[in-house]
Amino acid sequence: MKHNKLDLHGVRHHEVRNKVIRLVEDNWGEGLNVEIITGNSDEMKSIVGNVLDEYHLDYKVGTFFNKNTIITTP
Fold first, then answer.
1. Three-state SS across 16-58?
2. Are 63 and 31 in contact (CB under 8 A)?
């Protein structure tokens, strides 16, 4: 299972959708496991969540250690 990370710190909101789509499509396949670091921005989390929903991917927002990350769950 591949695990890739995308850090969106410093990325403008209008660029987020394309970056997340590229990450998902570049890593598409059995057991897709990606971590997307969003920072504190609720808008950023919403954009990322919308893209993951479009791909029908399961994900969780935040972890015990980091509330500013989104991780897909295979």
1. HHHHHHHHHHHCCCCCCEEEEECCCCHHHHHHHHHHHHHCCCC
2. no
Residue 3: pLDDT band with limits 50, 70, 90: low
State how far the Cα of 6 lies from the Cα of 38, in Å rounded to an integer.
9
* 42-63 pLDDT per residue, tens: 999 999 999 999 999 999 998 7
**In the structure encoding, which two tokens stand for residue 51, read together?**
């893209």
Q: 62-66 — which CB contacts under 8 Å span 24+ positions?
A: 66/37
Beta bridge partners of 57: none
Q: What is the pTM of this model?
A: 0.87
